[in-house]
Amino acid sequence: MTDHVAEFQFHLPRELIAQAPPERRGDSRMLLVEPGRGVQGESPFRTIGDYLRPGDLLVLNQSEVIPARLLTRRADTGGAVEVLLIRPQESGVWLAMARPGRRLREGIRLDVAEGVQLEVTGRRPDGMVLVRVQGDGDLVDPGEIARRHGLMPLPPYIQQEKDDRGGAQDTRDRQRYQTVYACPDPDGAASVAAPTAGLHFSEAVLAGLGEQGVDLARVTLHVGPGTFQPPSAQQIQQRRLHREFFHLPAAVSAALEGARRGGGRIIAVGTTSLRVLETVARLGLDGNGPDLREFGPTADDSQPVFTGRAVRRPEGWEVAGSTCLFISPPDRVTAADGLLTNFHLPGSSLLMLVASLMGDPTWRTVYDHAVANALRFYSYGDCMLILPGVSDEQ
């Protein structure tokens, strides 16, 4: 099973891993890539509109990243514990990762700031912990504490100041490690990593696309910590990844249908948006059958790709739940015509998804080209627009 991961390794010089965003959104470089043919050119990202047509539909992931990294100290020993809030559970309790966390047990309190504490309320077999606010102050939810006292959860390959509790780096990242169209979730849920393809867009670029007749649709997928981990042997064998929660509004279903009917192309902004589209496309939703469909474990499939529900609204299907969809060659991507994406980690599930869209050996030649031409990699790096016929658009 590990051989599958080995197939998606490549050499990346450390100096090509972007440690900071470009000075302005839109200043990044954008490779133009055609599936099966490879690199067709390069352009500044701010010119993306030159390669899109009226009636095309860009699907954006509007999930918000909150400053969920909390630097705490144990109230009993004074030992430092870094807490990363993952997602809310119920009654003010959050699922979290803690480092070091092996000795954390129920009842231990963690000092966040003067008069602000978290209490460990439980542990899970996977090593994660449950935490809630301890005390009677005005902060009643760990998510609220994060917004006031936390740091942005930058990926591990971005060097962070060890003792930074809100200095210049975090001030920059609160703005730039966030898309301009991010929208808070009414349930308090958020991403632990940015949907990075969207970081390139500025308000001006979005406005320009609207003026030329390119449509925008917004879905929500909350990125989980598994996004930075290579697939395990078990995940590869079962063809299932870590679960991530998403919502596709009925208006987006209508926009997708309208784009198809009008001859427009559907272009996912980021692998997270594409994961939503592919998951929904595989549910077999159509005009027949009941208006409410529940999806969950069955006797034949104890771990289905999608768990949740689909509701038929007047505009179209609204779908909400969680997905563990794993797309890797020789799988094919069918729910979108194109993809805007950054350059991903070797051996990652994100790279495997992109390879399914581009084909092999195309993805290898594209990545070799990116390295040879010193494009910047990962979250704050450059990007590529993967689209059939992209070289003919100008």
* Average pLDDT taken over every residue: 92
Order of helices and strands: HEEEEEEEEEHHHEHEHEHEEEEHHE
- Biggest sheet character: 11 strands, mixed
**Order of strands across the biggest sheet?**
2-1-17-16-12-3-10-11-15-14-13
Radius of gyration: 21 Å
- What percentage of the residues does DSSP assign to strands (E)? 25-35%
Specify the helix fraction band.
10-25%
The count of helical stretches stands at: 9
Q: Could you tell me the number of beta strands?
A: 17
For the termini, the CA-CA separation is: 43 Å
Commentary on this structure:
The protein has nine helices and 17 strands. A hairpin with a 2-residue loop joins strand 7 (109-113) and strand 8. It is globular. The protein is an alpha+beta fold and 394 residues long.
Explain the layout of strands and helices.
Elements: H1 2-6, E1 29-34, E2 38-44, E3 57-61, E4 69-74, E5 80-88, E6 94-99, E7 109-113, E8 116-123, E9 129-134, H2 142-149, H3 168-176, H4 203-211, E10 215-221, H5 233-238, E11 240-248, H6 250-261, E12 266-269, H7 271-281, E13 292-295, E14 306-312, E15 317-325, E16 338-342, H8 349-358, H9 362-372, E17 383-386
Parallel strand pairs: 1-17, 3-10, 3-12, 12-16
Antiparallel strand pairs: 1-2, 4-5, 4-7, 5-6, 6-9, 7-8, 8-9, 10-11, 11-15, 13-14, 14-15, 16-17
